[in-house]
Amino acid sequence: MKKIILYIIIAILVLIIIAGAIYILTRKESSPEEYIMPEQVFSEQPDQGKYNEYFTESYLGKLEEGVEFDPRKVSKTDTFIASDQFCLVLTLKKQVPANNLSGAVYDTNLEQDIQPKSGFPKEVGPGGMTGCENLAWPAGQYEYKIYIDDILATILPFEVK
Question: What are the backbone angles phi and psi of residue 153, rounded to the nearest 5°?
């Protein structure tokens, strides 16, 4: 009787292992080199090729009020309140010369830039980069636009409540 139970347990484990192997082998993954932006309506169309050439990831985040800057404490979000620290998190694949990485903030209600495009003054190497600042915009809907060589690479929509 104990041998039958042992055989049943072994058979179940073998089936679980086989099912797991089939799942791993058949699931579809996107290539780590290619990120496809979700379908959204933006004020203008970013250049997907430029994004894939330079970025592994890009997102907005925040530091809660009173939290000292530490890139590991940035919470990914697209919704902010006045007391949040507004953070931009980028992971770059390759070197970007000084002033060739730039950003602007576009107000979707006013349909204009409320923070004009400005270049990052230093050369940026491959790897992670996080910058945070006090939230500077009133309640509304916005787009954070990131440019490489004056070509729009991505748009990160966000809201201030």
Answer: -95, -35
